[in-house]
Amino acid sequence: MARYIARAPFALGQIHLLPKDRVRVDTPPDPKTGPTHVEMDALEFIHRVTTQIPDARRHLIRYYSAYSHRSRRARRAREDAAEAETGKPPAPAGADGSPPHKGRASWARLLRRIYEADPRLCPRCRGPLEG
């Protein structure tokens, strides 16, 4: 994934600066028309390259099916309805009894599993951290 992100949009050998602020980009042959390059103004080249950059704070990942927010919300509503019928609270999220649906707790659980150290305990006194 990192290799894909770090990859440049063009090979430097495909971009040629021409006189009078023109740029030529070598491309694979077009199957219908056959040209192997595109010539454009330098500002048009910059515009074409930068239109691929997404706007700030724009979500680029879309979730569908079981991962979508709508289906997760419906699943949570069904779980809450089942809890109301049976009167039993849901089982804790972790086997160690940590509270369910806590973002920080789940990260803490992952860190504890990976590094074999509980990030919710004070390193000096080994007491629970608050926050």
Describe the fold and architecture:
By secondary structure, the protein is α+β, with helices and mostly antiparallel strands. The chain has two domains: 2-50, no CATH class; 65-115, no CATH class. Helix content is 34%, strand content 11%. It is built from four helices and three strands.
Q: Determine the structural class based on helices, strands and strand pairing.
A: alpha+beta
Q: How many structural domains are formed by the residues? A: 2
Helix content: 25-40%
Instruction: Give average pLDDT, whole number.
Output: 78
Total strands: the figure is 3
Key traits:
131 residues, alpha+beta, 3-stranded antiparallel β-sheet, elongated
Would you summarize the structure shown here?
The protein is an alpha+beta fold and 131 residues long.
Task: Please give the structural blueprint.
Elements: H1 2-6, E1 15-18, E2 22-26, E3 37-41, H2 42-50, H3 69-86, H4 103-115
Antiparallel strand pairs: 1-2, 2-3
